[in-house]
Backbone:
């Protein structure tokens, strides 16, 4: 699985070209995606090996290509390599967060931020009952990043349980930008063997109307 995507800035294009050249049918491509999705696990224990900048740029490139509200692309990312800054970020985690060491010790922590007042807005006003959609757009970008990282042999864990205001102070993030999530990234020292159980598809999918079972 690892290294299937060519490690260059335009890796996604290379992969597409490879598939096309070899006349691989689309279901093969789907299986690749499903394999990456299903085998990915949250990794909280990393090797100290550094992550190559080439790979960092590939995962950030994947994030950049996510869809967003009216293509507003409210996301911004801070790549943290400094041990001192990582330590300060780890201190912002809520007590008992199992990702404390992941933030402190991963070779890189990617901090996902969002410019507020763009996603979900039209002519400066929110247009749905949900207000600002920044969490949604940033999540799309991060999931692209996380899945691409996994396909390159890199582990990550989403970290949401932290004090975002304190993290913003540590990083000098201005008020009109929200710190959404921390994402430690590195080569896994340990991958959980058993995936946490998922709900059965029957429990979560309805047909035509809420509550009407399909499967
Ligand atoms: C929005 C979000 C926030 C999360 N926050 C944390 C966190 O603060 N600390 C942590 O250890 N894991 C966190 N996780 C990871 C989840 O616990 C994990 O994804 C879930 O248990 C499923 O395990 P898996 O990722 O291995 O499939 C978060 C995941 C998401 C999607």
Residues:
């Amino acid at each position: 699985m690892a290294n299937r995507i060519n490690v260059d800035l335009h890796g996604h294009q290379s992969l597409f070209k490879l598939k096309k050249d070899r006349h691989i049918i689309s279901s093969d491509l789907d299986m690749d995606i499903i394999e990456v999705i299903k085998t990915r696990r949250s990794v909280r224990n990393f090797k100290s090996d550094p992550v190559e900048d080439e790979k960092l740029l590939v995962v950030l490139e994947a994030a950049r290509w996510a869809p967003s509200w009216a293509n507003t692309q409210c996301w911004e990312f801070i790549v943290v390599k400094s041990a001192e800054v990582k330590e300060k970020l780890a201190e912002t985690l809520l007590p008992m967060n199992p990702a404390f060491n992941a933030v402190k010790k991963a070779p890189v922590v990617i901090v996902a931020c969002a410019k507020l007042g763009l996603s979900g807005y039209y002519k400066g006003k929110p247009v749905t009952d949900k207000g600002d959609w920044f969490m949604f757009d940033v999540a799309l970008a991060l999931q692209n990043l996380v899945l691409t990282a996994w396909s390159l042999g890199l582990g990550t864990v989403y970290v949401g349980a932290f004090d975002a205001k304190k993290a913003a102070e540590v990083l000098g993030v201005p008020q009109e930008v929200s710190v959404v999530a921390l994402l430690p990234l590195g080569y896994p020292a340990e991958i959980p063997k058993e995936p946490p159980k998922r709900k059965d598809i029957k429990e979560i999918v309805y047909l035509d109307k809420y509550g009407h079972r399909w499967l």
User: Anything to note?
Assistant: Residues 11-204 form a domain with the NADH Oxidase fold (CATH 3.40.109.10). Residues 41-42, 44, 97-99, 157-161, 195-196 surround flavin mononucleotide (CB under 6 Å). Residues 134-151 form the longest helix (18 residues).
